[in-house]
Amino acid sequence: MATQDTRAERAGRGTATKAGPCTPGSRIPGSRIPASARRSPGPAAGPAWRGRAGWTPWLYLAPALVVLGGLLVYPIYQLGLISFLEYTQAQVSGGEPTTFQGFGNYTELFADEQFWQVLLATVLFAAACVVSTLVTGCALAVLLTRVRAVPRLALMLAALGAWATPAVTGSTVWLFLFDPDFGPVNRVLGLGDHSWTYGRLSAFALVLLEVVWCSFPFVMVTVYAGIRAVPAEVLEAAALDGASQWRIWRSVLAPMLRPILVVVTIQSVIWDFKVFTQIYVMTNGGGIAGQNLVLNVYAYQKAFAASQYSLGSAIGVVMLVLLLGVTLAYLRLLRRQGEEL
Hints:
With 341 residues, the protein is an all-alpha fold.
């Protein structure tokens, strides 16, 4: 009996030695601490630390926000302010005082029948440019994944060259290609001295080709980068199941590339809705009797040709509101469909 008691005492001392001394605050392994005895962090340390951490991202963004405020917010403020004033050449030169018109400029603008005609032409032209640019860019992006390295490099360099070409230069080159006297297109097609900029639809079509030519590289490069990020096993599995290239794009690639397609679509809508240089250069300021006017060129004519700066500013505000509305409506539609942006 004495021997068993001695062994038990030794076993207890060994267990206590391995577990460590029972100092205040220590816990024996396997034991549970009552909920009332658990310590909670101090009430002042948590909120203070969270407050400092919440301001850190804004400190990093502060330089960019200052630049955007000077280059974007202030011009928009001036644009909106002038649209509510009577601001013509007389006010600019100081001959007459500037007066507040309220919504008078917008009332005059909305009562102008030409404004609605130009707005309709702008919406239709921009929609055609966006669809053509997306179709061309996505088709060439898929083509880049199918060709060898040398043709891929040649196509990439040609596309980036078109993308880097200034709008004025590109418009002038396209005008020369379709020139009725010296253009090679009329000679190849046997059209004689046909003028592409005389008719309204043919002039819009010519400008559309130039806009797509200088815009599709952005879509092509962006979508191509997205396709390269798709796992090859997914595309191989779809091909083994007998899916055609169109079915692979519609059922596999397009859903996976939805965030990228959202970005390029919004960018294309903004760029094509406010086209100015191509229309102004290729149709000589809007075509015959203004038949090829879009909102940007129309605002330029009102503001600088007619010296009605307040009306030009009102057109700019309308364009800004329309673009914001289209962008927000498109994003809201995607969110309703359950897409992650």
